[in-house]
Every structure is written in C-alpha cells, then in structure tokens.
Write a structure and sequence with these properties.
With 136 residues, this protein is of the alpha+beta class. The protein has one domain: 2,3-Dihydroxybiphenyl 1,2-Dioxygenase, domain 1 (Roll). It is 22% helix and 38% strand. The protein is built from three helices and eight strands; from the N terminus they run βαβββαβαβββ. An eight-stranded mixed sheet has the order 2-3-4-1-5-8-7-6. It is globular. The chain starts with a strand and ends in a 5-residue tail after the last strand.
C-alpha cells in the first residue's frame, strides 16, 4: 500500500546552479547534499512538508541518471512512493506483468529498501518505491 509521496526527483547538470532557484529564489531549505556512489549521483535534499524535492547531479557518466540527462535533458526524473511492504508491492506488480527495473529491492546504507518500476509500465513515468526502516 502506498503511504505517501516520498520525493520528487529532478535531474540537473549542476547542483549549485539549480540551488540558486530552489533555495535562493524559491525559498526552500537545503537539508543536506549527499554523494551516492552506487547510483553515480550527488543529491541535494529539499524538504517540502512531509515530502521532499531531490536534485540529482550525475557524477558518473555511465550512470542511469547521466544517460537520462544526456538523452532527455534536465527536468523531472522520477516520483518516489513510500510503501508498507516493498517485497509484496514488487510481487503484485510482477503478477500484473508491470516491467520492473529492479526485480528485487536494493537496500541503501541507511536501511531504506528501494526499487524502480520501468516507465513502460507506468504510462511514461519512472517510479521509485521506498520501504523506509522507520514509520513515515
């Protein structure tokens, strides 16, 4: 079951330039910037209510985010939903023959389990699923 929209991710070629809009002009607070070598990105986290905006800057030219930026340019990258049970959600999507990028969940260093659903199965939107190690 979907619990909430966890975040909206926007791919950008330059975090500093993007932060001029999101923080300086738009007024959002920058919580932190984190390097995620597994995904080949630096991520700026900007809380908005119970959700957040994540700005993704590729750091590895071979990463999926870098290829996305090269092919489509900057802009909306994906929507992320927090779910109660990611394994059950992935099983339900597989049973419905929805194409998945991750057949099984990946666990991040902070304990989040995540997986991506292919845009071919969602009407063109890359969807990420999170199972958080703590209540939302």
């Amino acid at each position: 079951m979907i619990k909430k929209v966890d975040h909206i991710a926007v791919v950008v070629p330059d975090l500093d330039a993007a932060l001029k809009f999101w923080v300086e002009a738009f007024g959002l607070a920058l919580e932190r910037v984190e390097s995620v070598p597994r995904e080949g990105v630096d991520v700026a986290f900007l809380p908005v209510g119970d959700s957040e905006i994540e700005l993704l800057q590729p750091t590895d030219p071979q990463s999926g985010v870098a290829r996305y930026l090269e092919k489509r340019g900057p802009g909306l990258h994906h929507l992320c939903f927090a779910v109660d049970d990611i394994d059950a959600t992935l099983a339900r999507l597989k049973a419905a023959e929805i194409p998945l990028i991750n057949e099984t969940a990946v666990t991040s260093n902070d304990g989040k389990k995540y997986a991506f659903v292919h845009p071919k199965g969602t009407g063109g939107v890359l969807v990420e699923l999170y199972e958080l190690p703590f209540p939302c």
